[in-house]
Design goal:
Elements lengths: L4 E7 L5 E2 L15 E7 L3 H10 L21 H7 L8 E6 L5 H14 L4 E5 L4 H11 L6 E5 L3 H11 L3 E5 L16 H18 L2 E7 L11 H5 L2 E6 L6 E9 L7 E7 L2 E4 L3 H5 L10 E8 L2 E13 L7 E4 L3 H14 L7 E7 L11 H13 L7 E3 L2 E2 L5 E2 L4 H10 L4 E5 H7 L6 E5 L2 H9 L1
Parallel strand pairs: 4-8, 4-9, 5-6, 5-7, 7-8, 13-17, 15-16, 17-20, 20-21
Antiparallel strand pairs: 1-2, 1-3, 9-10, 10-11, 11-12, 13-14, 14-16, 18-19
Helix pairs in contact: 5-6, 9-10, 10-13
Length: 454
């Protein structure tokens, strides 16, 4: 082996490094994920010189200023980014193949170039003609947008230094390769080193860089999670490829909240923003159907109304079937146990299916009360009034606990025409009266069930 080079083993799942091959990764516990790669080591003198170049500074001597963000003119994307694009930031956009990552970023390029921003779109997966065909469906583009089809990171870095654009799009990081790394494109070493070079360019030149990353079948960014630790912002594009809606969710953001989501609809001309996700999610709801109730969840600062559906039917199996779509399966089992213990509902011989219509996934416990009432409605085959909205967290004792931002949830229900809201009694006492909406505070699950029986 050449002098200065050594062989190490990397876990393809989490990036853990080992001097020898291991059957199971000690970090992520995955089996048979280690691959052999050759890396080049720097001499000790070179490392010492690089470390000595940067000395410590006093905190009070550092001058800061509020960076002006660049608006993408897409309110949903700006919301998830925390108000716009921060100059010099490194943003990772992940998602399933065909979900719309490249389409979204090409539309961002269109908006930014129209605002006289210099944009460089670098593709390692598509030819210039393929990008042109996709751009023709979106609309007209300004000459401020430049395209480059290249996978050699050294040539890409040199082009960025010469052009010095305001925004750079890398599509995708798995296709880029560094000549100094002997491993294949998409490997742990290549992805890590390529991202490191792009990060130095972004911070050194003040260029905003968007990186497209593919995801594995488990839903994590391929190549591996070490990539998420290096970037400033991580956005995931979610949704069913066969459905029209898409959800952009921020899971890491050094410049804003990580609870915000953006909702888009895929059309022939590209992605269109959904300004009112609640109305969009409730489209097609069947009236006077048992097992259906509307609940409210908060995604960041945005209230979203969702239809929770439940189906309870007699089981012929020794162990009744439980299924959950859109929320945690274990949470469903917990709520069913509360119903059996506190409400004396005999669900031990019933199959129970719970679904959040629209395909969105919610983890907020404020929808617990909605799940409870949907299951009771289906079990008793008694519809709930379509103008009723419910929200509240349910405890193991059957109590209904308070949730945050209750007034925003009620105002969203009022805007969409709901006339009755069932909410925790604690929230009811804090809010007072709201014109046009009847508020019913409940302390326990039994109180809520009695209300829907009226």
């Amino acid at each position: 082996m050449a002098k200065g080079k050594t062989t190490v083993f990397f876990c393809q799942s989490c990036g853990h490094e080992s001097a020898k091959w291991l059957g199971q990764c000690p970090a992520c516990r995955e089996w048979n994920t280690f691959v052999e790669e050759t890396i080049e080591k720097k001499s000790t003198k070179v490392v010492q010189r690089e470390r000595a170049a940067a000395g410590p500074v006093c905190l009070s001597s550092i001058e800061t200023k509020d960076e002006e963000r660049m608006s993408t003119r897409m309110d949903e994307l700006d919301r998830v980014l925390g108000g716009g694009i921060v100059p010099g930031s490194l943003v990772l956009v992940g998602g399933d193949p065909g979900i719309g990552k490249s389409t979204l970023l090409l539309q961002v390029c269109q908006k930014l170039s129209e605002d006289e921003k210099n944009v460089l779109y670098i593709s390692g997966e598509e030819s210039l003609k393929q990008i042109k065909l996709r751009a023709a469906r979106i609309g007209k583009f300004s000459d401020q947008l430049l395209l480059l089809c290249e996978t050699n990171l050294n040539l890409i870095a040199e082009t960025i230094r010469q052009r010095k654009p305001d925004v750079v799009i890398i599509d995708s990081i798995q296709t880029m390769y560094n000549e100094e790394i002997s491993s294949a494109p998409g490997s742990v070493s290549q992805v890590r080193e390529s991202t490191s070079v792009l990060m130095q360019l972004a911070k050194g030149l003040g260029i905003s860089v968007f990186i497209v990353g593919h995801v594995t079948k488990e839903g994590t960014v391929a190549g591996p999670r070490v990539l998420e630790h290096m970037v400033d912002t991580v956005l995931y594009f979610e949704g069913d490829r066969h459905a029209s809606y898409r959800i952009l969710r921020g899971v890491k953001n050094r410049f804003g909240s990580t609870n915000e989501i953006g909702v888009f609809e895929m059309r022939e001309s590209g992605l269109t923003e959904v300004q009112n996700p609640s109305e969009f999610m409730l489209n097609g709801r069947l009236e006077a159907a048992s097992g259906s109730v509307v609940a409210c969840s908060m995604e960041g600062t945005r209230p979203i109304l969702l239809e929770i559906q439940a189906l309870v039917c007699h089981s012929t199996l020794a162990v009744p079937r439980r299924a959950a779509a859109g929320m945690d399966y274990n949470r469903i089992n917990l709520l069913l146990a509360v119903l059996e213990k506190r409400m004396n509902l005999k669900l031990g011989n019933q199959d129970v299916y719970v679904n959040i219509a629209g395909g969105i996934r919610i983890s907020e416990p404020a929808i617990d009360l909605g799940v409870i009432l949907a299951v009771v409605s289906s079990y008793q085959d008694r519809p709930i009034d379509e103008k009723v909205l419910v929200f509240g967290e349910v405890g193991l004792s059957g109590e209904v606990r308070a949730v945050s931002q209750a007034s925003q949830r009620v105002q969203e229900a009022r805007k969409l025409g709901f006339t009755t809201v069932i909410l925790p009694e604690v929230c009811r006492e804090q809010m007072g009266e709201i014109e046009g909406v009847r508020l019913y505070g409940v302390r326990t699950v039994a109180d809520a069930v009695r209300l829907i029986r009226k």
